[in-house]
Amino acid sequence: MQLHVCFESVQISASILLSSLCPKNILGKLQTSKIFERLKLTIKMSKSVNYIKSASRLRNELRSRTVHERDITNERAPPGLRGRELGMWYAQRSKQRKEKELEKKLLSGPSIYLPSEKVEQLKKEIVTLQANTSSDLSSRVDSSHFSRYRSANFMELIKTEKEAIKLHRSSELDKRLYDDFQMTTKTKGYTQMLEFRQKLPSFQHIDEIIDLVTQNNVVLIAGKTGCGKTTQVAQYILDHALTNMEGSKTKIICTQPRRIAATSIAERVATERGEELGHSVGYQIRLEKIPPRSIGSILFCTTGVLLKFLEISPTLNEYSHIIIDEIHERNAITDVCLALIKKIIEHRKDLKVILMSATLNEEKFVEYFNDCPVIHIEGITYPVEELFLEDIVEETGFDNFSKDTRKEPIWCQYKYKKQRINQANSFEMIVGNYVNSLRGKYSQKTINTLKNPATETIDLKFIQHLIQYICCNKPSGAILVILPGFTMISQLHDSLLKDFPPSKFIIYPLHSLLTGNDHRNIFRKPPDGVRKIIVSTPLSETSITIEDVVYVINAGKMRRPFFDFDKGATIFEDEWITKANEIQRKGRAGRVQKGICYHLYTRGRSNVLEPFEKPEILRIRLEETILSLKVLCIQDVRHFMTTLIDVPEMSQIDASVNCLRRIGALTDKEELTPLGLHLAQLGVHPKVGKMLLLASIFSCFDPIASISAALSFKSPFYTVMGKEDLCNRAKRKFSPDSDQLAVANAITQWRTDSINQRSFCHSNFLSHSTMVMLDRMKSQFVQSLYYSKFLNDSQTGGIENNRNSENVDLLKAIVGGGTYPNIAYRSIKIRKGRRIDKIITTESKRTKLLPSSVNGDPNAQYEPGFMVFQELNKFTHNYYITETTSNVSPFGILLFGDEIVCEVRDGVHYISVGGMIEFRCNSDTIDIVVALRDNFNRLIENKILKAAPVSWDSDEGKLLTVIMDLLTVRNLYEDYKYQDVSDDDDDDEIKQSN
DNA sequence: GAGCACTGC
Question: SMART domains, from UniProt (predicted)?
Answer without folding.
Answer: DEXDc, HA2, HELICc
